[in-house]
Amino acid sequence: MSSPAQPAVSVPDSSLERDRGLLRVMGVWGLALSTIGVVVGAGIFALPSAMAAVLGGYAPLAFIGCALAVGCVALCFAEAGSRVPTSGGSYGYVAQAFGPATGYVAGTLLWLGDVLANAGVAAALGAIGAAQVPDGAAALVRALVIVGVLGAIVFVNLRGTAQGTRLIAGATAAKLLPLLVFVVIGALAAHAADGARSVLPIHPDGAAFGRALTLGVFAFMGMETSLAASGEVRAPNRTIPLALLLALSLVTVLYVAIQLVAQRLLGAALAQAAAPLADAMGRVSHALRVLMLAGTAISMLGFLAGDLLGSPRVLFALARDGLLPRVLGRLHPRTHVPYVAILLYAALAAVLALSGTFAELAVLSSLVTAGLYILGCAAAWRLRQRRVALAGAPLNLRALGPVALAGILSMLALIALASWRERGGLLLVVALALSGFRLARRSHAAVAQ
After folding, report:
1. C-alpha atoms less than 13 angstroms from C-alpha of 300 in its C-beta half-sphere
2. Range 24-448 has CATH code 2.40.50.100
3. Tens digits of per-residue pLDDT, 87-143?
């Protein structure tokens, strides 16, 4: 994997100074579980039916294709993360590679994509709670679930990074257990039924195909969120690459296994299943169906826990660099966490969740994150060319150039599959970010005078 490339050059600048006061307490498994906790969200409990409706029996291959596309990006992030392991993750890579203006765009895409995803999952969790009560109380219960869950996770994170990491580890284990039960028991049940039911190949129109692949790639996104806490990772030049590769490998095997088992149990009915994993387990046992429904809610909680640990660090990093109000760069005097950034990020997510739905917020998040991935792949190549290494010997990935090109082209293809309106929205976000950078620089210069 590594190549004996030119010796790394330690670049003295303020990239790691922004991490002053943070505690590096996260190891390989902590970062890997954080990544898995964010990547494996509630979507996988519903996505198999959407993929089957569009791609039929070829859906498992689509998951592999999505994994390869995101895997190229993950390799680039592993390379860049081993070279610039700082708070904000990909924001730090891009800023170091291309300068503060492009870095600010990357930081904006990062936190915006994350908060849209967070809000979408919180909205879906609120919808689950609202469905359990009479219509007259549904709106109130939905709001209470959204605010209550986000508030509880924020409370844990304000107590310290180690506590937040432990919450993620527990939530990840709790969310993976139902999925592992589904794979093992589902495979045994399908084998006992003597073979697979047919899953008819579908010939979708372009819009349906594009939406399915967008949701498929969305199911693999999330590493950028956990990497935002890179300023709190031990031995980051080793930990970050190992954690990323471990997390993505495990997620890919899990997703493909889930799709194959769902197809064997439900066959052609999979394409119409509203809750495919629960419906599939319902053919084995009612108790297992209930377990899958509970797993959906637990998976959402795990995603929110991972996101609220990582994403506020982007706001923190931008504030430490003078590109957002300085108050967002404050650390709690006892726990050393960026408490103001955490509170603001959670409040913004709650407002978006109360006003939106999962599907619309998830698609917007995918497109915004695709733009970030393009910048991250390019940054990895640029940092390698400049031999930047701020924390010891970097990964030095073989064939980084072709891998980065594949990652960039994959994300451009994803953006091309979106509607004109959605692509226009992404360009507007970039334009507003550049304008915001200029305003921030002018404000910073005025304060300095």
Report:
1. 24
2. no
3. 788 888 899 999 999 999 999 998 998 898 889 888 888 887 887 888 888 899 999
